[in-house]
């Protein structure tokens, strides 16, 4: 039986997937795990009453598991991982912090008024560390009918 999922439609184009990264994350998870689903595109400039009855706060993504609607991408992905463990998409604990300092070092670099304060080098070091990690994890994935090399 297919899961039902409500996602944001594109602004001004209600029959096209919108730009919500949380919705896209859940859709990618469903695709990678080959879980069948029925897609409901929600026009955010005119949210339908049926949607607001299922999600009073009007949040997406929204997925129906059994008879319960869940509206948090982290929770949804966790449930999908539990119900459909293969292929596992969990981040191994040893990689959980990879790249976690990039945003902070980027903000420090952006706010810096001193070209010699080391913030640029700190950002470059973090980016290089992430790049090296990704190179070590290179693999191909198959998604939406295409092969991608990561």
List keywords for this structure.
150 residues; alpha+beta; five-stranded mixed sheet; two-stranded antiparallel ribbon
Mean pLDDT: 91
- H/E order of the elements? EEHEHEEHHHEE
Which percent range fits the helix content?
A: 25-40%
Shape: globular
Number of strands: 7
Overall description:
With 150 residues, the chain is an alpha+beta fold. 38% of the residues lie in helices and 23% in strands. The protein has five helices and seven strands. The strands form two sheets. Strands 1, 2, 3, 4 and 5 form a five-stranded mixed β-sheet that branches. A two-stranded antiparallel ribbon has the order 6-7. The chain is globular and about 55 Å long.
Question: How are the secondary structure elements laid out?
Answer:
Layout: E1 3-10, E2 13-17, H1 21-32, E3 37-42, H2 49-54, E4 62-65, E5 68-70, H3 73-83, H4 102-111, H5 119-136, E6 140-143, E7 146-149
Parallel strand pairs: 1-3
Antiparallel strand pairs: 1-2, 1-4, 4-5, 6-7
Helix pairs in contact: 1-3, 4-5
